[in-house]
Write a structure and sequence with these properties.
alpha+beta; 5 helices
Length: 132
């Protein structure tokens, strides 16, 4: 059941940010789009990720967020999967590393999509309890 390619469940219209955006902008996007993670890109290439939990653990007042750039605090060297990797591989990576999302990139590190723990839960639920 977990042998389908990850591309079959990934979100493809991914909201992203760049290293030169401010944390105020990130916070606004996270709130308005109801997201927990934002991949950081340079052009199409994945260079990092920033999450709502990262903003929380910065322990800085929100008033300072307009002075701090994403590139100063983002997580670099982000693990990713490729579109042909299996859904089961995504589940293993998320559980092993306690991630809540993993970007999907091609071999050139170009961002193609993202898979969240919610996506995996939804996938599993619809397989076990089909609508018909």
């Amino acid at each position: 059941m977990m042998n389908e390619p990850i591309s079959s469940i990934m979100t493809v219209n991914v909201q992203t940010v760049t290293e030169d955006q401010t944390l105020s902008e990130v916070l606004g996007l996270l709130k308005s789009k109801k997201l927990q993670h934002l991949p950081v890109v340079n052009g199409k290439k994945l260079v990092g990720i920033i999450s709502s939990s990262k903003l929380f653990w910065l322990n800085k007042p929100h008033e300072e967020f307009d002075k701090i750039k994403v590139g100063e605090v983002m997580t670099r060297g982000v693990a990713f999967l490729e579109p042909d990797d299996k859904v089961g591989a995504a589940a293993e990576v998320l559980m092993e590393h306690l991630f809540h999302a993993i970007p999907i990139c091609n071999s050139d590190h170009e961002l193609l999509g993202i898979v969240s723990s919610y996506d995996l839960l939804k996938y599993q639920f619809t397989k076990e309890y089909p609508a018909n």
